Amino acid sequence: MSTSLSDTPSSPNNEESTEETKQERAAIEEKIVNEEYKIWKKNSPFLYDLVITHALEWPTLTCQWFQDIEKPEGKDYTIQRLLIGTHTSDNDQNYVEIANVQLPKSDSDIDPRKYEEEKAEAGVHGGSSESRITVVQRINHDGEVNRARYMPKNQNIIATKTVAGDVYIFDLTKHPPKPLAEGVCSPELKLRGHTKEGYGLSWSPFNAGHIIDASEDTTICHWDINGYTKETRTMEPFRVYRGHEAIVEDVAWQTINIFGSVGDDQKLLIWDTRDNSDKPSQSIIAHQSEVNSLAFNPHNANILVTGAGDKTLSLWDLRNLKVKLHTLEQHTGEIVQVEWSPHDETILASAAGDRRVNIWDLSRIGSEQTAEDAEDGPPELLISDFSWNPHLPWVVASTAEDNIIQVWQPAANIYTIDEREIPADELED
């Protein structure tokens, strides 16, 4: 219950004053963001070896690199695909989308000296009228796409989290590049089991067809779509996990039988699918606020990271969850997404409400950091999702609330041990 200095109801003048204060704060925040962006844009040639910026028609809350890569003959670029989905207004059609991205063939083909300030692009050949990011397939979707992920064992099979709580399954090979009927959504399968929407979604990389998800109804559903038939277009979960006391934010597989979950009850739960009880095998209070994301290290499955509303990341070892390995503190907004690099077991990235994606090198834990180093980095709008490129180390795709999708690679001198000092007079204030 809130308290006040007076029991007198607020007057219209007070309400107007409060509204004016909100508008003034919003204007100040917008000015700060714009100034940060101008500084970032001028310093991009020093911060990045590669930047590709593309404006989508609608924002996307999700992005994921596919594993395949195409190498057109006689071209100096490769074509890689991104899985994205729209978040439109109520009256516009939503879609699951596949985008082609033109990228340099290798790190050696990335030239940071090639910088186009107007496009905020670096490291790629300029002068081309073609967009380097192009939507090549569009599938009708009911409502916004909260999250989309492909099955690791078959990249043509796509799962999406819907605003109604169901999970839709699409087979890309059964849908044309453009939808035939406007507004008609025809997934191959609808996975039932939830009463509310959610965002967490995880295919098992070990067991084809197995998928789990997180929901605001505090439960986790587990389906095996191998039992799907064309006659049956809906499927109920073969198991529902109930252990959280609040919204479940994220889920992730560790091994063929083990997965983890985190939620607004501040908990990290570890589940063993071989255990038929309703209780998780391990349960800890991981943070002092809601826990929004978790990820297991693909190079060492015993190590995982959690990101939370308390603006911190926590490192854990499954063999002894009673003791936190380390806390990473740098974000000034709540952390919404974490993901390990597929190329290096000590590298992970995090996105937060402070408009930034931070890249962390755990091998440097304990190293001294100057105040100037702590202030470096690109200002972004609120990050919706990001994904490490599976072929090019240090290349990341990130999406933001302003319809922008960026593909970027930090400058090599930033992440290599033998750092090249950039003279202060070369950087823009």
Automatic annotation (TrEMBL):
<dbReference type="GO" id="GO:0005634">
    <property type="term" value="C:nucleus"/>
</dbReference>
<dbReference type="InterPro" id="IPR022052">
    <property type="entry name" value="Histone-bd_RBBP4-like_N"/>
</dbReference>
<dbReference type="InterPro" id="IPR020472">
    <property type="entry name" value="WD40_PAC1"/>
</dbReference>
<feature type="repeat" description="WD">
    <location>
        <begin position="284"/>
        <end position="320"/>
    </location>
</feature>
<dbReference type="InterPro" id="IPR001680">
    <property type="entry name" value="WD40_rpt"/>
</dbReference>
<keyword id="KW-0156">Chromatin regulator</keyword>
<dbReference type="InterPro" id="IPR050459">
    <property type="entry name" value="WD_repeat_RBAP46/RBAP48/MSI1"/>
</dbReference>
<feature type="region of interest" description="Disordered">
    <location>
        <begin position="1"/>
        <end position="24"/>
    </location>
</feature>
<feature type="repeat" description="WD">
    <location>
        <begin position="241"/>
        <end position="281"/>
    </location>
</feature>
<dbReference type="Pfam" id="PF00400">
    <property type="entry name" value="WD40"/>
</dbReference>
<keyword id="KW-0677">Repeat</keyword>
<dbReference type="GO" id="GO:0006325">
    <property type="term" value="P:chromatin organization"/>
</dbReference>
<keyword id="KW-0539">Nucleus</keyword>
<keyword id="KW-0853">WD repeat</keyword>
<dbReference type="InterPro" id="IPR019775">
    <property type="entry name" value="WD40_repeat_CS"/>
</dbReference>
<dbReference type="InterPro" id="IPR015943">
    <property type="entry name" value="WD40/YVTN_repeat-like_dom_sf"/>
</dbReference>
<dbReference type="InterPro" id="IPR036322">
    <property type="entry name" value="WD40_repeat_dom_sf"/>
</dbReference>
<protein>
    <submittedName>
        <fullName>11141_t:CDS:1</fullName>
    </submittedName>
</protein>
<dbReference type="Pfam" id="PF12265">
    <property type="entry name" value="CAF1C_H4-bd"/>
</dbReference>
<feature type="repeat" description="WD">
    <location>
        <begin position="328"/>
        <end position="370"/>
    </location>
</feature>
<feature type="domain" description="Histone-binding protein RBBP4-like N-terminal">
    <location>
        <begin position="35"/>
        <end position="105"/>
    </location>
</feature>
